[in-house]
Amino acid sequence: QELLQESGPGLVKSSETLSLTCTVSRGSISGYYWNWIRRPPGKGLEWIGQVYYTGSTHYNPSLKSRVSISLDTSKNQFSLRVRSVTAADTALYYCARGGYIYGADAFDIWGQGTEVTVS
Amino acid sequence: QSVLTQPPSASGTPGQRVTISCSGSSSNIGRNTVTWYQQVPGTAPKLLIYSNNQRPSGVPDRFSGSKSGTSASLAISGLQSEDEAEYYCASWDDTLNGYEVFGGGTKLTVL
Predict the structure, then answer these.
(1) A34-56, pLDDT tens digit by residue?
(2) Best label site of A21, A30, B27, B71, fewest CB within 10 Å?
(3) In the predicted model, what is the mean pLDDT of residues B78-95?
(4) B63 vs A6: CA distance, rounded Å
(5) pLDDT at residue A22, as a whole number
(6) Residues 12-71, chain A: which have Cβ within 8 Å of B?
(7) For residues A104 and A113, what is the distance between their CA atoms, to the nearest angstrom?
(8) Chain B residues whose C-beta sits inside 8 Å of any chain A C-beta
(9) Chain A residues inside the 8 Å CB shell of B92
């Protein structure tokens, strides 16, 4: 079974750029949708966006102006960048896979999550 | 405020049947499938139900999903203490070029 692991700084200064990477191991990026989801403290899950293995992307309209998601197939990784962060971007960030036999928007494999605090 | 509406909390005693509702609109649940996730504190969400009422392998048949119009429900029968968790519904929304939307989550307490 594929494993996903998020990595990146746990602390980002306000107005700077948050950058996270998700490494896909024991499997391939090909054929799937790769997603970023976050959970702010005390709140529910929020979908940030996704990149298909072809490179096409979809973003949450509320974040679209500040977010970009990209793919590095040579490293079996995909990345998230959020520009001009504020305290509202403080959250537990997850990467997740979609597009297996359960459907494009059924996320069957998740990373363990990484906490990001905006100071 | 979440696009999909769930009750913030639900509860039941061991062995009981509980249901959790999820209300949406014609642009999401009304035209797309519903997915349910279970998140136990301190762990990542787990796929529970996909395509409205299908269970991935390994999910007990105590969990079932249904959809009618612009609403969906998750039912848990034979409630067990390990079912205590946060439950989220999700669906694709076709507005604004399309995006995934989640409910606000329902905290299930097993009394």
Answers:
(1) 999 999 999 999 999 999 999 99
(2) A30
(3) 97
(4) 30
(5) 98
(6) 35, 37, 43-47, 49-50, 58-61
(7) 21
(8) 2, 32-33, 35, 37, 39, 44-47, 50-51, 54, 56, 86, 88, 90-92, 96-105
(9) 104-105
Mean pLDDT for A99-109 is: 89
On the question of pLDDT at A99 being above 90, the answer is no
- Mean pLDDT of the residues in chain B: 97
How far off is chain A from B97, nearest CA to CA, in Å? Answer: 8
pLDDT in tens, A1-27: 889 999 999 999 999 999 999 999 998
CB-CB neighbours of B24 under 10 Å: 26
The three-point CA angle B43-A41-B84 to 5° equals: 40
| Calpha distance B74→B108 (Å, rounded) | 12
Q: Does A105 touch chain B (CB under 8 A)?
A: yes
The 8-class DSSP code of residue B81 comes to G
A106 touches B: beta carbon within 8 Å: yes
Q: Strand B71-76's sheet: what is its strand order?
A: B18-23, B71-76, B63-68
**Which residues of chain B neighbour A47 with C-beta distances below 8 Å?**
90, 99-102
The continuous run of DSSP H or E covering B35 comes out as strand B34-39
B37 and B88 in contact (C-beta within 8 Å)?
A: yes
Residue A8 DSSP label:
S
Picking from A2, A3, A5, the residue whose alpha carbon sits closest to that of residue A22 is A5
Give the closest-approach CA distance of A101 to chain B in angstroms. 9
pLDDT tens across A84-93, in order?
A: 999 999 999 9
